[in-house]
Structures are given as C-alpha cells and as structure tokens.
Amino acid sequence: MANTNIGKTKRSTDDLINDAINRQQSWLNGRRQFTRRFLRKFHINNETTQQPEPVSTTKDTDTKHNQSKQIIRSYWFPIMCAVIVILLAVFVMLFKINAPVKIITPSVPEPIVRTIKNNNIKKTPSFDLVRIEKNGNIIIAGRNVRESNISIVINNRIVSTEHTNKDGEFVYAPNTALKPGNYVISLIDADKNIKSEDSVFVYISEQGYKNSVSLLMTKDGSKILQSPTLNDGDLVVSKIDYLDTGRMIVSGRALPRLRVSLSLNDKYLGFARVSDYKNFGLGADVGNLESGKEYKLNIRLHDSNDTTIAEIEHKFVMPEMTDDNNTFYTVRRGDCLWIIARNFLRRGILFTMIAERNTIKNPNLIYPDQLLQIPTKN
Q: Does the CA dihedral 264-265-270-276 come out positive or negative?
C-alpha cells in the first residue's frame, strides 16, 4: 500500500510559516492603527484645552536660585583660582612696578700683589739633544740659565764645563770618541750646584753608531733619542734590552703572524709570534753576561714551514753595567701589560707591578707610544 503522507511535511511547514507571518503583520497593523488614533486624540485634546498658564513668579525665582547654587557648587574651584590670579595681578601692578630695585654688591677684598724675584726661581739644566755621530763622537746640547756655567757629568765624573749663551743654550762636542760601553750622562749648574732632573743613557756599540742607543730618562718615563738599526729585509730589530736580572728582551717589526726565534752563542732561547700590527717582543733568560766578553745574538724570522727567511746576527762586547736601574718600554700597537710583564719579569701575572709603578688605573687600557717604567727590582 502506498504511503499517502509523502510530501505533507513540507506543505505543513510552509503553512506554519505563512500563518506566523500573517499574525505578525496583523499585530503590526493593529499597533499602527492604535498609534494613529492616540496621536489624533492627543492632538484634538491639546487644541481644545490649550490655555495660557498662569505665571508663577515664586516658583521661577526658586528655580533660578537653585540653578545659581548648583553652578557655584560645580565651578567653585576655577572661580576661586581666577579671583586669586586677578588679585595677584592687581597687587603686582600697584606695588611692584614702582618699587625701587636694590642691587647688593658683595664686598671683594683687594687683590694682594706680590713680587717674585728671579733669583728665587731654581731653573734646572735640561737636555735638548744627545747624538752619536758616525765617527763615534758624541754631541750633547741643552739649556740652563743664560750666561751661566754648566758641567757635563758622564758616569759620575765631570768631563767638561761649558758656558751658556744669552739664550741659555750650550753645546758640548768632544774631539775624542767614547769607547764602546754604557754611559749615563747628567748636567750640573756649576754656579748654583743644581743637578738636572733628567739623565741620558747611552750605549755605544763596537759595530758603530748604527747599533748605538741614546735614551732620555725622566721621572715620567723615557724617550728614545737614537735607536739601533738592525734589519734584514722583512725583519727589523729596534731595541735590545739586557736587565741586571739576567734577562734579555728583543723587540722589533716583521711580517705578521710569522715566528721570530732568538739564540745567543748558538743556544736556542725561544720564539714569539709577530702580531697583526707587525710587532714582536721576545724575552728570555740568558744569565749573567760577563763584562768585556764578546757575544753573538741571532734573531731569525721563520715562515709557516719553519724555514728561515730572514736573519740578523748581532755581535757585541758586553760593557760594564751602570748603577742606573731604570728600564723603560715604549708601548706598540697590539701590546698588553701581560705580554710586557712576561717578557721583562718572566711572568705575565706580574703585570700589576708595571701598572702600579706607572699609575695605570685600568690595566686593560694602554696606548701606543705610551712610555712605561719597568720595575726590574722590587
């Protein structure tokens, strides 16, 4: 038997939806009609019953009074500020404009002028130049009080007394060359017995002036006046230090990142790497070198295959050591106090001694061309 209800569900749903829409529209039409009737009646009643209202002066007065109170309560603070500003402006205009201005000048005592006599000023002798000539002669130039006598002292012995000119300058150039060795030169004002604060250390090599050194030593550091020239192509030795502790330090320039080795009398002493700035420094213990004995120092530059590509052979006769214990070092790019202490003092951890001697607050910060005094003796 066939099912007769198929398709009725859809038709019943449509009927329900249509009925709901019709009911809603009828309800809306009813609301519209009610609203129109109400507005029509309200308009008619308003036209028929509208009469002028009686004026109530008491009620209006109370309303205005209440509104004033409400305004005052709401805006009392701005009103008060405005009144204060107006009063201050009036006060300034009336009393401050005509008030006399008083300038108070502090009492300053009269300056005391004191005359200083030139006789009380102690001018110490000073060096301008110490140079070793090709023939081995030495030239010393300096200055002192004009028209005065000044004595040249070499290794604690007065060798000459010169006279300064009107500008206070003098020159000492002996005819006899100094023998190879170490010398400490100082100056003395012969008239007032005043010694120079600075001194000059001179090393005269048997190989001639090219290997000789003159170094100005001051209380604040040292300055190289003349340095040796030892070179072989890409290898240059600028300074050789020998300390009374039996340690030798060789510094110079070479190709970066290569090795520099050192040997004394064919005895290997060690090596050092050349920095990226082409500087190297190598320190080694050589023991006590005997005065008057000849030594041979070899400095070699090696490539990555350990092949010697440059070599400097320096022969020297060990001179007598002086009583001057000052040792100075000029900082180069790429240096640090740890490496300097390792070369001079054998141990890098002793860099604090160099920092303390030179009053360096930050040991990690040193500058190229900075002069350092090395405390070789405690």
A: positive
